[in-house]
Specification:
With about 425 residues, this protein is of the alpha+beta class. It is about 40% helix and about 20% strand. Strand 4 and strand 5 form a beta hairpin. The longest helix has 18 residues.
Amino acid sequence: MKIDSIPFGKITLSNGFTIYYIERPVPDVVYMYIFYRAGSGYEKEGVRGISHFLEHLMFKGTRNYPKNYLETLLSKYGGDSNAYTSWDSTVFYAQFPSCVAQKVFMYERDRMERLSFEDFDKELAVVLDEKQLSEKTNPTGLFSERLFYTTFLLHPYRYPVIGTEKDLLNMTEEKVYDYYNAFYSPENAFMVLSGNVGPDVIDSAVKVFQEVKKRGTFHRVPSCDIEPAQNETRSFVMKRKGFGTNVVSVVFKTVPFYHKDTPYLDVLSSMLGASKNSYLYEKLVIKEGLFTSINSEVYETQACTLHSIGGVVAKDKNPKRAVERLMKYIENPVGLFTKNRFKRTIFNVYADLVYSRESIRSQGEMLGEFVLLAKDSEFNDFPLKLLSVEFDKLKEVYSRYFKVDYATYGILTE
């Protein structure tokens, strides 16, 4: 199996802002991502939710541009733009023809330097409504919040990205302005361009963004080493009337994304529960009928990657019994380490890698994620590491991280 490297360019400006680009001979479309190292993982007590709220304000205009400027500009060409906030970053992205690249860059520069803070109170009310509505109507969202509150005791990952109602109610323009100045600086951001990125587009990006003045510093999320050692299983049961389904989720805290064991952990996670051929699906869905579905997910972060195993319990089965069996199979994984299962998993990993690297848009986003979580060279190195995972080392890595005493699980039931 072979994964071809995807060449990319890199330009670091004197103010610390870095521009990455992947040029491809495609129709006249440019995909742009701007990553700010500003997410809930950086937030402190008293400002939980400030990153997500600031994302909202970034669409409300600057000193030189009215709100909705970018949306109006790009709609003429069939382009689009949006943003999202996570634990580790806030990302703004857009799709547009190269003929308007300079206009887009000038607008983004203004958002980085001269945000107007228009509609502050109105937008804060929108975020508070979003928070309150979620609590009333989204039991699975609340379950996820409780799961991370239980998994982490000290690390800011324990808090939801949207923040806490207490901190949002006490949010002030001064707090947000200080956070904006500290985190929305060129030293703490980078851009990824992909698609029809010719010399004119690159030169324009350099000329526009080199004018942004330094005013902040480079930020990183705190290490998960601040967490106390977990030496016993943590658990909780959440009941919601009318939910009608029993859901189980188990989480293991492991290592930062850049750790040497990460490729092995990704493969192990897939072997455990990524498909109908996975170990836990065979044991708990097909053999015992305790679950109707099982799936594994990986939350890759700067501080510590989370491996989650979740499932829907069959209607006639006891959820506590179901989670007991799930934990038993994780603790004593007889039948997990077979060469046939490993070969199937590596093939599936390879297929996913090939598919994910076909799209010019996804290439840009993936490069940005590797820069954020590790370093840019991992964009091409990490796929090779995944395909180089050795079967004989899997048991050793598994025994280090997938221990029941290291797990947190929750049950969502009616």
